[in-house]
Each structure stands twice: as structure tokens, then as C-alpha cells.
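Figure 3 (text version): C-alpha cells given as input.
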């Protein structure tokens, strides 16, 4: 549990067993705000006593040094942290620095942390500060046998409680504390997403993922969850989902989560998330190396459920529908095969050339069904869809492709705000030509070139003219080789996308 309170700097009490964290910019005075609390004079005196060379070293970005200072014979346990140049100190650097503070405090054994001068009067930096604090303390520890039974189901540092007091000058403190509450709710959605994605495939498979989604109903009476079993999926003619899932004894599910809270009966935003709870590649089986990471192939669906979890706490006046097709892609005597032709929900036929290009098949059915049933004003899908996206953009940037420039620009703006990087890729007729089939309407792979874009070209056959954006999060959904070191993204699932879609929804009100 993390409690974060915003106070005027002169009202902050400094007591024993606290850790006082002082941020130091290379080009700004450290005393300007510290002097507003007389109990911090000892820190100013210490810093004033340092020679310039030593002080300059401490001020370098990310540098930390612990001190034991005394004021009136009372200890002031202090951590100095370098912030670099103030002109370069953006929101993502704040996110990373506040995460470093959390991790350093945890390492030093402190649960009560005071941050008097990190943001001073910059309320705009409050949101990333809170995100860094909360998300850095996440641990997926429920299966560690050396943790006491009573704490195995908790996500934050072995069930420790942390209290952070943040100092601001001349702020609207009611507004700031309300913002803290909102940001923490969004972070809870990220944590919900991370927990699901990190869970192993023997624990989270289509039916248990559906049960996790059903828990959202108890959080808010504006949320309704429907789970379609194999029989219902067959009745609807969702043959893409059926085909991919039929090789496993764990039957597929179609999970629908509705959040209805708009007073004007607006058309909903439709979110679709790929949830392949484990992907062997099917008959076109993957190499064994790093196949264990294919538990993360459900990350698109987990992101969407994390968004719905955040909505359940925030009471936003919007309508949102989440559709999550969930399957396990396994090789067996009942698996679908290369060469099969599948008639999809919208009537189009697909020639299967590779059973490891399964995500687009289940997404296509879910997109077509969701659009047909809910007539949404816009559609956004999330999927760990192509290794080609990692080759093109690496492991720190997600691919964005769509048919509506206005929607795309809104998403780019939201992602910039939250530090979740996305990059727009083109979708032109040449790519549509690459997925034409000689024996069906389209084929499920388009060859070696432009793999991320041809996958999106495939999906475009199932969205009609509805404003649509596709996010390929294959590189960003979990920490991999090349993932940037960010304190707020511990090893494993990142929950990528929850924060910037929540920002998009908030800005759309």
C-alpha cells in the first residue's frame, strides 16, 4: 500500500525514522525552497559546506548519496539525488527519479519518506512523480515460496506500507491530492494488467482470464461483464477464434466488459485486446528458445482489462466497451493447419499460411463483432502482434497504424504525455495487395517485408469505415533485450498502454 500526501513545505514535520529526500539540479539553487522549512537548515548548511566539485558530482542525473545529519541532536536521515539540468528535466525523467527514490528508500529500509523540494511549485510534474513512486514498487511475488502466505497475493514490496509526503509551495492542495487519487487509480489499473500478464499459462488461461475480468463487476455497478463460451462463439460464427483455439483443451472465451457512464448516451469507444494466454505457434511451432515469454502474448487483452479496472475506480462520464478474444494456441490433432481456409465473422475468407500468425485472426473476429454490435465512435486495438515491429522500432516504441488521422494524433499526444512511446507507420494500398490470396479473400501473412504493416492491413478488412487505431505492442509489453532501464518498469510485464489510453479517455470528455 502506498499513501501519498501533498503538503505545503513549511507544514511538513521532520521526525525520526523518516527518510528526507532532497533533489539537486545542476543549474538551480537547492536552498530556495528548503529554507521555507526551518528544520531543513541543517541540510542547507551541509550542502553549503561542500566544495563545488563534489557538489557538482552529486547533482548529476540519477546520482544518490545517503547522509546522517543532526538538528538539535535529532537525526535527519537524508538522501540527496541528482536531477541533472533543469531544462532537460521532463516528465519521464521525473517518473524515473521518483521511482529511484522509492527503490532506494526500500533498499535502505524506510517506509516513511519526505520529499520537500522535488517539484516545488511545478504541479505539472506531480502526475509523473506519483506514477514513478507507485509503479516502481510493484513486485510480482505471489509464487515466491520464501514470502509469507499472508503476503503472497500483494503486489507492493512484500505487503509493506509506504507513506510519502511531498512538499509544494502555493498550490491548490485539495486539487493536488485529488490528482494523486486519480493517478493512483490509473496505476492500480497498470498493476492489474501486470499481474495478469505476468501470471504463468497454467494459472491464466482463457477461462481464468475471463474470471479475472468478472471481478470488475464488484468494483462498480456501471460495469457489466459477459463471457461467451465455445458454444456461444460457435453460434455467432466467430470462426477465427474457434480455429486458433481448437488445438487446446482449454477452450476459447470471448470476454466483453461494458462501462456505461455517459449521461448523453454517446456511442462507446471500443477497445479490443489480443489475449493468447500461451502461444506455441501451433502447427507452425516456434523455436524453444524463450518460448516461456509467450505467456506475455495475452498482454493486449491484459492492457484492455487494466484500462477497465482504472475506469471502475474513476467514474469517468464516458462509455467504453472492451472485447477480449482469448485462446491458447497449441499443436495437437485438432489444431488448425497451414492451408486451411476460414470464413470469418464478417463473411470474408482467410487462407492460413502460418498458424503462428494467429493473433490477427482472433482480433479480426473481435473487431468485426464489436463494431457490428456496439456501433462505436472509434476503435483501438492492442496486440503483441508481430516480431517485425521489434525489428522496426525496437523494444521501447510501439507501432501505431490506423485509418483516421484525427484519432491517431490524439493517441500520439496522449502517449507523449505519459512517456509510453508510439510511432505511426503507414498503411497504403501496396500493403493491402501483399495479403491478397489466390484461393480466398485474403491470406494471414504477407511475406517477409513490412510484416507489422501487412498485419494491420489484414485487420483493416474487419473495421469498415469506423475510426480505428491498431497498436502493436510486441516490443513494449514486457521487459526484453534492449528495453530501456526505467525504475518504474520492473522486470516482466510493463502494463504498457493503460496510462496513455486513460489520458486519451480523460481528455475526450
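Below: residues designed for each position.
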Amino acid at each position: 500500500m502506498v499513501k501519498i500526501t501533498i503538503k505545503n513545505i513549511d507544514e511538513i514535520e521532520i521526525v525520526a525514522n523518516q527518510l528526507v529526500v532532497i533533489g539537486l539540479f545542476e543549474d538551480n539553487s537547492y536552498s530556495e525552497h528548503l529554507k521555507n522549512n526551518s528544520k531543513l537548515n541543517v541540510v542547507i548548511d551541509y550542502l553549503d559546506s561542500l566544495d563545488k566539485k563534489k557538489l557538482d558530482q552529486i547533482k548529476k542525473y540519477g546520482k544518490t548519496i545517503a547522509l546522517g545529519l543532526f538538528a538539535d541532536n535529532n537525526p535527519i536521515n537524508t538522501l540527496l539525488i541528482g536531477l541533472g539540468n533543469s531544462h532537460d528535466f521532463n516528465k519521464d525523467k521525473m517518473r524515473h527519479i521518483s521511482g529511484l527514490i522509492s527503490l532506494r528508500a526500500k533498499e535502505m529500509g524506510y517506509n516513511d519518506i519526505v520529499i520537500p523540494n522535488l517539484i516545488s511549485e511545478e504541479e505539472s510534474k506531480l502526475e509523473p512523480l506519483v506514477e514513478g513512486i507507485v509503479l516502481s514498487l510493484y513486485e510480482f511475488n505471489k509464487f515466491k515460496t520464501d514470502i509469507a502466505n499472508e503476503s503472497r497475493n500483494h503486489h507492493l514490496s512484500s505487503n509493506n506500507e509506504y507513506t510519502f509526503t511531498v512538499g509544494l509551495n502555493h498550490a491548490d492542495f485539495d486539487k493536488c491530492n485529488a490528482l494523486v487519487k486519480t493517478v493512483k487509480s490509473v496505476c492500480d489499473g497498470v498493476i492489474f494488467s501486470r499481474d495478469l500478464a505476468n501470471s504463468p499459462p497454467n494459472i491464466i488461461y482463457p477461462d481464468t482470464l475471463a474470471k479475472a475480468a468478472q471481478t470488475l463487476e464488484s468494483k462498480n455497478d456501471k460495469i457489466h461483464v459477459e463471457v461467451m463460451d465455445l458454444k456461444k462463439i460457435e453460434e455467432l460464427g466467430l470462426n477465427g477464434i474457434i480455429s486458433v483455439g481448437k488445438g487446446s483443451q482449454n477452450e476459447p472465451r470471448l470476454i466483453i466488459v461494458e462501462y456505461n457512464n455517459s449521461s448523453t448516451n454517446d456511442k462507446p469507444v471500443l477497445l479490443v485486446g489480443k489475449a493468447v494466454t500461451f502461444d506455441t505457434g501451433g502447427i507452425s511451432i516456434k523455436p524453444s528458445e524463450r518460448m516461456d515469454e509467450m505467456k506475455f502474448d495475452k498482454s493486449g487483452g491484459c492492457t484492455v482489462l487494466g484500462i477497465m479496472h482504472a475506469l471502475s475506480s474513476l467514474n469517468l462520464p464516458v462509455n467504453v466497451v472492451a472485447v477480449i478474444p482469448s485462446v491458447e494456441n497449441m499443436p495437437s490433432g485438432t489444431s488448425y493447419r497451414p492451408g486451411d481456409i476460414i470464413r470469418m465473422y464478417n463473411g470474408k475468407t482467410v487462407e492460413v499460411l502460418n498458424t503462428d500468425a494467429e493473433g490477427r485472426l482472433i482480433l479480426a473476429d473481435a473487431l468485426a463483432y464489436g463494431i457490428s454490435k456496439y456501433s462505436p465512435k472509434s476503435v483501438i486495438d492492442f496486440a503483441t502482434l508481430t516480431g517485425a515491429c521489434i525489428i522496426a522500432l525496437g523494444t521501447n516504441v510501439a507501432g501505431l497504424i490506423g485509418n483516421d488521422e484525427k484519432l491517431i494524433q490524439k493517441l500520439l499526444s496522449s502517449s507523449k504525455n505519459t512517456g509510453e512511446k508510439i510511432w505511426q507507420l503507414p498503411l497504403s494500398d501496396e500493403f493491402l495487395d501483399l495479403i491478397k490470396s489466390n484461393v480466398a479473400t485474403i491470406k494471414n501473412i504477407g511475406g517477409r517485408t513490412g510484416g507489422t504493416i501487412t498485419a494491420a492491413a489484414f485487420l483493416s478488412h474487419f473495421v469498415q469505415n469506423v475510426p480505428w487505431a491498431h497498436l502493436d505492442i510486441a516490443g513494449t509489453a514486457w521487459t526484453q533485450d534492449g528495453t530501456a532501464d526505467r525504475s518504474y518498469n520492473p522486470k516482466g510485464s510493463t502494463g504498457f498502454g493503460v496510462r496513455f489510453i486513460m489520458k486519451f479517455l480523460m481528455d475526450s470528455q
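The first strand starts at residue 2 and ends at 8.
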